[in-house]
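Reviewers of the previous submission asked for a worked example of the structure-prediction workflow described in the proposal, so we include one complete record here. The input consisted solely of the amino acid sequence. No template or homolog information was supplied to the procedure at any stage.
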Amino acid sequence: MAAAAATAVDGDERVMAAAQQILMSLGTSDETMKKDMLFILKSLGTSSSSADDRFSSISTSSDPPPAPSDADIRLDAAANLILRWDSSPGSLPWDDSPDEASAYLSAVDDVISAVEDGSGGDRAESLLQQAMQRLEDELRHLLVRNTVPLDIDRLYGSIRRLSLSFASSTADDISTVDDFESSSIDDGRSTLDHRVSGSDDFSAVDLMLPGSVDDLQAIANRMIRAGYGMECLQAFASVRRGIIDECLQVLGIDRLSIEEVQRIEWRSLDERMKKWVRAVKVSVRVLLAGERRLCDLVFAEADSEACFVETAKGCVVQLLNFGEAIVVGRRSSEKLFRILDMYDALNDVLGDLQGLFPGETGDFLIEEAEKILEGLGDAARGTFAEFESAVKNETSRKPIQGGEIHPLSRYVMNYVKLLVDYSDSLNQLLEDQRLDGDNGGDGDENAQCTPLGRRLLSLISYLETNLDEKSKLYEDAAMGYIFLMNNVLYIVKKVKDSDLRTVLGDHWVRTRRGQVRQYATAYLRASWTKVLSYLKDEGIGSGGSSSSVSKVALKERFKSFNAGFEEVYRIQTAWKVPDEQLREELRISISEKVIPAYRSFLGRFGSHLEGGRHAGKYIKYTPDDLENHLSDLFEGSPGLMNHPRRKLSS
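From that input alone, the workflow returned the following structure tokens.
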């Protein structure tokens, strides 16, 4: 009995050894499965002895195989977890159950280790491929789900910049007075969009939810370690490029070809240029700066610059393409301010771009940005020159009714006034340029001017020369002087009441005020010399005594004076002097010449007609009557002659 028992025990041991061998070949070390296999093997025979005989061929004469290693056990566990998630349609619960996500990442680490040390063989390689595909999908999922929407309202509230909007109905070059009259760069009609709140510091803006960055970094580190860095970079860049494209659309930047941009009518193009100016700053200092930070964090253990360039280059190229379309587009004066806005915006962020793309991989983008910046500068210079030419060669031949301010004066001075807002940029752009036969200065003052100041002096000089020619279109020389007074004074006031005074100087202002006084003197001479000539003593009689006065000549003198005064009144009440102070000064000057002369003449010779028949026919006015009538001049309303209190006697 004892021998039989010993034999049975020995048989059990051999059966166990055979079972272990089978289990090893099946790749499992589960203890429960061992027991189940032993039970099955034993049940195959009626006794341990028969089982021993039946499986004697399976048993070996050598020692039992070693137990599975810790690496094998970890790989088995990793395989179970990876395969389970591989068959799951959902993503890892990064937020809801971070422990599960962490367990998956640990399983990936075990697979990577097995591949690195070669212990896992083909099985580990296959598991690694499955895990990497899963991680790439998870990377895309996290990038999309955790993106922070662009808060455009808050960002626009942080941009500090003066924007100019011109609602001109035509993009044609200005060559006729109609173009100047239809332009919106006029008193009170130009639209200024001030956005002054907050600051330009956007460093606190996050493009991803902060908690997701660690998960992205964990995925990137494992893919890079496993040799899948390029796949990781491409997946990351692909998703982020799409998100940046969506942000550009929110900013109003559409993907347009150069040809499409050039076909856009001016009103729409003006709006697109304005949006581009805003978008450049937001794109560089918010979107791209945020992308750079994100790339540096996620790819801290790899080439983050290559990832950033791959992600951001499309955004930069799209913005620069629009700039190129403006550079090569048709030039017209109303575009100058938008071109300068674009120049300033790109110049302002160029340093930021150089900081974002410091390496060789981004050199081509910086070179392209510098090229577009230079092109915008050339476009601004060329547009400025074309505007000067348009002002110089404007040849309208239609006199302005009433001698009022010419639309050319309004347009040019409002245009020039706005140019001063771009003094820094224009001084830089115009520094090496001088006009042929520069005629814009007042002596040595011009030599001391800034580049912009010299060009503005020349531009206003062209305007003054043009206005002088237009004053000759009036048949009445006196009206030509009124026209010149109105326009020169308008120019002076625009300079005096703006930053133009700093650019052109007080001497320039004093010189033009002197011109206004000269024109006033010329007006008085042209308008009133003949009327006043009727109040002279010559031809009435010798010595002025009562006996020597010719009543016939005296009646003719009063009659001629009345007719002359009434003619001037009838004509010049229709003339217009918009400036209240100039209007009053002219009336005073006229009164100082006419009223004393009339009062004196009336005092010397009025008595010769008073008391006679029809005396009122010749002595129609008292000095006070004339004074009252003079107050009607230059109102631009000829109907005032019929005003009850102003009606001239018949």
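The chain is about 65% helix and 0% strand. We consider this example representative of the routine output the project will generate in years two and three.
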